[in-house]
Amino acid sequence: MFDIEIRRTFSAAHQLKGYDGDCKNLHGHNYNVIAVVRTNVLNDIGIALDFKKLKAALDEILDGYDHKNLSELPEYSEVNPTSEVMSRNIYRRLSSMLNDGTIKVYSIRIEESAGSACTYFEE
């Protein structure tokens, strides 16, 4: 089994409605996103998944978040854009773009600050 992993970054603001603390106020993070894709199949030249393809797919998703107020995006109108919710949303969107029977998105990890991260995966 092979795990293919990339790391991308984006900067965004958000606020957590209903939260009892400082995070109820608008604030920002420099997010790190780590995507892990799993497969046990290599193509005829020994590549599981071209890093360029994985980066392009994840960048397409993250471009909609970069330098935005996440709390104002339609996908977060009903729920706070927490690391938990964002990692699940990114996982599902990336899965719909890449999963093909041999390639499967395994996990999405979001680090919102040094030492604070959430990883989402589905079994």
Descriptive notes:
- The protein has 123 residues and is of the alpha+beta class.
- It has 2 helices and 4 strands.
- It has a 4-stranded antiparallel sheet with strand order 1-2-3-4, covered by helices on one side.
- Strand 3 and strand 4 form a beta hairpin.
- Helix 1 packs across helix 2.
- It is elongated, with a radius of gyration of 15 Å.
- The protein starts with a strand and ends with a strand.
- The mean pLDDT is 97.
Briefly summarize what is shown.
With 123 residues, this protein is of the alpha+beta class. It has helices spanning 51-62, 83-98; strands at residues 2-14, 27-39, 104-113, 116-120. Strands 1-2-3-4 form a 4-stranded antiparallel β-sheet, covered by helices on one side.
Q: What brief labels describe this structure?
A:
123 residues, alpha+beta, four-stranded antiparallel beta sheet, 2 helices, 4 strands, 23% helix, 33% strand
Radius of gyration: 15 Å
Mean pLDDT: 97
SSE pattern? EEHHEE
Percentage of residues in DSSP E strands: 25-35%
Biggest sheet features: 4 strands, antiparallel
Q: How far apart are the first and last residues' alpha carbons, in Å?
A: 16 Å
How much helicity do the residues have?
A: 10-25%
Detail the topology: elements first, then pairings:
Layout: E1 2-14, E2 27-39, H1 51-62, H2 83-98, E3 104-113, E4 116-120
Antiparallel strand pairs: 1-2, 2-3, 3-4
Helix pairs in contact: 1-2
